Amino acid sequence: MRSGNRSSAIPRAFSAIRRRISPALDPRVAGERARTLLARAVASCWVALGIIPFTIIVYDGAFFPAQLVPGAVAAAAADGLIILLVVGLRRHVFDRYPGLPFALLAGVVCNITEAVNLVLTGGPVESDFVFPYYLISFGIAILYPAEIIAVVATAALLPLGYVAAAIVTHSPLGAQRFTSNLMLLVDSAAITIIGNVVVTNLFLREVKLRIDLESANDRLREMDRLKSEFFANVSHELRTPLTLILAPASSLSREQLEPSQYTLVETIQRNATRLLQLINDLLLLAKLDTGEPHIDPVPVDVAASVRRIAEEAHAYAESLSLRLEVGIGPGPYIWNGDERHLERIVLNLVSNACKFSQPGGVVRVTVGGDDEGIVLRVIDQGIGIAPEDIDKIFERFVQVESSANRRFEGTGIGLSIVKQLVTLHGGKISVASEKGRGSTFTVHLSASPRAPVVGPMQPPPEVAKVKLQPAVAAPIVPTGESGARIAVVEDNTDLLAYLSLELGHYYRVTPHADSTKALQSILADPPDLILSDIMMPGLDGIGLARQLRKDPRTAEVPVLLLSAREEVEAKLAGFEAGADDYVQKPFQLQELRARLEIHLRLRTQARELRKALEQLKRAESTLVQSEKMVALGRMVAGVAHEMNNPLHFLRGNLALLRQKVPPQGTLTPLFADIDESLSRMTLVTKQLLLFGRKQHGNVAGEIKLAEVVPLVVKMVAPQTPKGVRIVQRVDGELVQANPQDLFQILLNIVHNAVQAVDPQKGEVTIAVQRAGDRVEVRVADNGCGIAKEDLPRIFDPFFTTKPPGSGTGLGLSIVQELVAAQQATVQVESEKGRGTTVSVVFRAAGVS
User: Fold this and answer.
1) Which of 60, 538, 587, 717 has the largest count of CB atoms under 10 Å?
2) What number of CA atoms fall less than 13 Å from residue 613's CA on the CB side?
């Protein structure tokens, strides 16, 4: 029992070791390795069939002539065995064991033949015929991608064969030369095994990659087939609902409709026809991918067909303000092909040329011939194609312009269909273009001998009839007479006209088909809301939103973006640019209007909230300022009151002292200085009392400015330098004000102006002007002016721009308080070095 278990355990152990050393391969990789082993075995047999006799005969004949015949016999025997191997390989004898043939060839046939000739040429110790072992080892290393066990066994047979030859010839196994050769053979076997592992791993990796690539290509072909089937199925399924759109729209267009209703019906027909054309293109593309449509070649007069097609496309070109010309060379130009495909080729090329041409340009279609056959050219004067884009224009779904800001509508399959149809008929198409100078598309078709020409064929359902519909520009005019002002920016004129018409029932709509011009118009006169498409020529919707947010005039105007792109990245890009909302096409008008109303309402509420916050800030500031001024007034009034008694005492004693001193004595200048200082202190005290008490009279009195202004000028005359001129421009204007307060206001302002000007060439102008129910008094000087950073503080108490000791800083503060008491306003405009203008606006007399 134990013996049985032991005998079964040994194979299991060997199996486990084998799996560990040489793990199982993918069946496809294993199959490719088996095929490679068998193929290399056959090739190695043919090589060995020639090399073995050649090596033995040449070596023996040169160095051992007596052994030439036995050597030749050994070589012939080896070739016989090799032929048997080849026969076995041809009959698939080794298909189950693909690694065995090469092992037999290298480890048995070649090894035995080498050992035999080694014996014939002196034995392992004396003979130099050892080099064939190295050739065999090299072959095992690079040509034998077998499992590692088979490689080790095959490589190990070589040194064993050398030892066997030594034993047969009774050579001394301890001889130095024998030991050296044996060690060299063992080392060579080890290197062979290592090299084989490296080469085999590289081979298996390459096979796996190749198989994976083939599998990926198979999957791609299958996906492409499924995609084509899907396009075909969807295209067929879409035709039914499109029929139910086009047919009722056609019936409605024959009814008596209002102009606005007829415009909507025309829009439905035009866009449904465009959608049908797109479906037909996709269906044709799917059929071309699957090897359809089949060709019905008949003799076709290319010149006549091109003339007819050009006549049908003439109206389309004229609607785009283009001239379509046709040039036909001296024919005949007979082509053996399918006229339906020729029509599609020409119409697609003409449509493409018209689409990319500028208004007023020329599109020319020519038919001629050269050595290759018939040459059809479509030449335009449009925008041209950049050199780096020429190789891409015939690729499917590729447009040379970015999809985010492309200037022209399209799917990018028109030129792909053209190339496939031309290739289907054995022709060639090429393009020559220069950026900004236009493009020339050249189609080469093979000419046919002159034959009866078949009339135009009716296209079967698989190739739908193509018509170039004239481009009808929808009227783009502002709509709406009431409601919020909305700017709509959309490059599709049909959609722009529709939005303008429908939204015009509720808002005042300004439509824009050009985003760059729209930006200029919006910045010049900001609307209440902006509705913009994203995919537009030049400046796209994202860029438009970004520009609007940068400008303070439109930074807070709501921006809504329209787009057919539904991926999250597109929405995030819009929001990051500053858009307030994102509306996906197709949209319901009710939903769009609801979103517009929400954002308009939010903007109104934001405005009201901002106004309320500003009023609250002003009220808070006024309250704080008022409390500060009350506290300051009390303190100032107390200080002024305490100063009055010492001033009266000083003035009285000064008068008594003057009576006891001679008038022309040496103390007279000192008395003058003391008197001037007392006058200044008295003036300051009066201003402090006036500021602290803030006692104002009745504002109902009517005061004639022509009487007050001269009195003010007379009062400041003693302090006015001789070089300063005061100009009065006062008529008979009457204002409502308290006389004392009005006098004090003007006196303080004029006094400040006189002190600010140059004593040698200063000028102060007092001008009065009435505007409606207000009278403005302007006091302007050409003095030193006030720095910009000081203007906000000039009405603060005790703030002055005069040198120290030249003023109290209370004059303009008193003016502001008195002006407010008259229900008037005061404003100061000044620039450093260019003078100051103080403007006081009173209520005109007689105004309630």
Assistant:
1) 60
2) 6
E strands, 620-748, where? 702-704, 725-729, 734-736
Contact (CB, 8 A) for 333 and 342:
no
Contact call for residues 747 and 758 (beta carbons, < 8 A): no
| pLDDT at residue 649 greater than cutoff 90 | no
Give 382's DSSP letter. Answer: S
Strand 485-489, strand 529-533: pairing: parallel
Residue 16 structure tokens? 């486990």
**Residue for token pair 């130099």:** 128
| pLDDT 10s digits, 134-181 | 999 999 999 999 999 999 999 999 999 999 988 988 888 888 888 999
**Spatial CB neighbours of 537, under 8 Å, sequence gap ≥ 6:** 405, 406, 407, 408, 491, 515
pTM above 0.85, yes or no: no
- Angle, alpha carbons 555-556-557 (nearest 5°): 100
- Determine if residue 469 is left, alpha or beta; phi over 0 gives left, psi from -120 to 50 gives alpha, anything else beta: beta
Tell me whether residue 87 is exposed, middle or buried, using C-beta atoms within 10 angstroms of its C-beta: 0 to 12, 13 to 18, 19 or more: exposed
Round to whole Å and give the CA distance between 751 and 811: 9
SS3 445: strand
Please check the confidence at residue 461 and state whether its pLDDT lies above 50. Answer: no
d(CA 532, CA 550): 17
Residue 778's pLDDT band, with cuts at 50, 70 and 90, is very high
Q: What is the CA radius of gyration of the chain?
A: 53
Which among 268, 287, 291 is positioned nearest to 279, based on CA atoms?
A: 287
Q: Quick one: pLDDT at residue 567?
A: 75
- d(CA 806, CA 812) in angstroms, rounded, equals 14
Identify any residues that bridge with 843 across adjacent strands, giving them in sequence order.
Answer: 774
* Token pair recorded at residue 351: 């449509």
Contact between 596 and 531 (Cβ < 8 Å): yes
pLDDT per residue over 596-629, tens digit each? 999 999 989 988 898 888 888 877 766 666 666 5
- Minimal CA–CA distance to 782: which of 722, 747, 832, 717? 832
Mean pLDDT, all residues of the chain: 81
**Can you tell me the mean pLDDT for 295-321?**
85
Q: Where is pLDDT greater, at 522 or 477?
A: 522
Q: Judge whether residue 40 has pLDDT over 50.
A: yes
Spell out a b/e string for 514-549, using b for 16 or more CB atoms within 10 Å of the CB, else e.
ebeebbebbeeebbbbbbbbbbbeebbbbbbbbbbb
Q: Which of 550, 492, 546, 503 is nearest to 528 (CA)?
A: 503
- Residues 97-112: what's their mean pLDDT? 93
CA gap 23, 149 in Å, rounded: 12
Euclidean distance between CA atoms 115 and 167, whole angstroms: 11
Give the pLDDT confidence score for residue 144 in this predicted structure.
92
